[in-house]
Design a protein that fits this description.
The chain is α/β, with parallel strands linked by helices and 393 residues long. The chain has ten helices and 14 strands.
Length: 393
């Protein structure tokens, strides 16, 4: 076991001891089930969530101060996970599927339903999750339950979209550590900015050419699960199409032998799973040049030939990263896949229209929203005090 794994194991034991001590003293917050958006097929549903104490992180407000946002961020990472809790997932026929939370409070279930629940919002199928019993000294509130939303793409979806989040959808400045820390720690879902025009472009991709708005989105990110609520609120506030958020665990060292937490390994594994889950669905990949997206997407193309329709890499304006992306793009020409290093969302949308992914008529709306977002980014409507308004009204 590496030194990082040893430190991580000691930290986990200390955290569990403190959590149980608080429970014995009656100082622990009430429990809550946090269901995560996931995905599946008519034959297989993947349900995921976490059992935590409720730290009282409410809905983000337009006037929330930097201190308030920083306090909420501390609460997200100072989470109290409940391991060993007995839970059950209830399918549409009322059949119970027992599960137990792991060391970090997560629960996952891959189930084969005979009947699907009634969908909500077209492509989303809610699956009931209930808490049965918690280990001593915790106490379970009566009838604690939640609905875990599972995305099932319709048969006539034209293609799926797999997108990164940080520096692709949300401005985080991941290549500048000080600026990234300021943005991540003291801004909330209202005061964090999307990249200009991204919401309208993503809505155009979801609409596709058939006009049914049934192309599914999947967000694969190395952000930790602790930020799930913030990211989901951000997508909703900016009217960006919802989709499963495939994040990663945040910890010191690996939890298990062979457990991957690295950016590259995590994203590649999640994308592989998506393409294997939907063998008849082709995909568009969207990322940025700040990390390893270009190399990861090259590997995806090689592993799944003929499945990738286009790749868009947002330029973070670093010459060394741009040179790397251009090299990967040149390699992929042999695989007949276009990887574009784009300066802005409009450039990506224009290419998408030229190859028939979206309608030409969608381009003016993307351009208009880009201009609106540029105005929001420069007129002081979203500032470092965390008092800005959502970009999309």
């Amino acid at each position: 076991m590496s030194i990082l794994n040893k430190i991580g194991d000691l930290a986990d034991r200390a955290d569990e001891f403190l959590t149980r001590t608080r429970a014995r003293l009656g100082l622990l917050h009430p429990l809550q089930i946090v269901p995560y958006r996931s995905y599946g097929t008519p034959d297989r549903l993947y349900v995921k969530g976490r059992l935590l104490t409720d730290k009282g992180i409410g809905e983000p407000g337009e006037g929330d101060s930097r201190f308030h946002n920083l306090l909420n961020m501390y609460r997200r990472f100072e989470s109290n996970e409940i391991s060993g809790a007995q839970m059950r997932v209830q399918d549409a026929e009322g059949v119970d599927h027992p599960i137990v939370t792991d060391d970090e409070g997560y629960f996952t279930l891959n189930m084969a339903p005979k009947v699907l629940p009634e969908p909500v919002d077209f492509m989303w199928y809610p699956v009931e999750v209930l808490l049965e019993k918690v280990p001593h000294p915790f106490s379970a509130p009566p009838n604690l339950r939640a609905a875990a939303p599972v995305l099932i793409p319709p048969d006539d979806a034209e293609y799926g979209i797999i997108s990164d989040l940080d520096d692709t959808v949300i401005q985080t400045s991941s290549t500048n550590l000080l600026r990234m820390a300021r943005i991540v720690l003291v801004r909330n879902a209202h005061s964090r900015l999307p990249f200009k025009g991204v919401a309208e472009f993503y809505r155009a991709l979801q609409l596709g050419r058939n006009g049914k708005r049934n192309n599914p989105f999947f967000y694969v990110s190395s952000s930790p699960w602790n930020l799930y609520d913030l990211l989901e609120d951000f997508l909703a506030l900016n009217k960006i199409p919802p989709g499963p958020l495939l994040l990663r665990d945040f910890g010191i060292g690996s939890k298990k032998p062979g457990h991957q937490t690295a950016h590259h390994g995590h994203k590649l594994k999640e994308i592989d799973n998506l393409l294997l889950t939907y063998p008849k669905l082709n995909f568009v990949l969207i990322g940025d040049s700040g990390q390893e997206d270009a190399n990861i997407y090259r590997e995806v193309v090689r592993r799944h030939p003929g499945r990738i329709l286009a790749i868009y890499i947002r330029d973070i304006f670093r010459a060394d990263r741009a040179t790397m992306v251009e090299g990967v793009s040149e390699e992929l020409r042999n695989d007949k896949v276009e990887m574009l290093l784009v300066q802005d969302t409009v450039q990506a949308a224009e290419h998408a229209a030229s190859i028939g992914l979206i309608h030409q008529e969608a381009l003016p709306a993307v351009q208009t929203e880009k201009q609106k977002d540029e105005a929001a980014d420069t007129d002081g409507s979203t500032d470092d005090e965390g008092t800005g308004k959502p970009v999309m009204e």
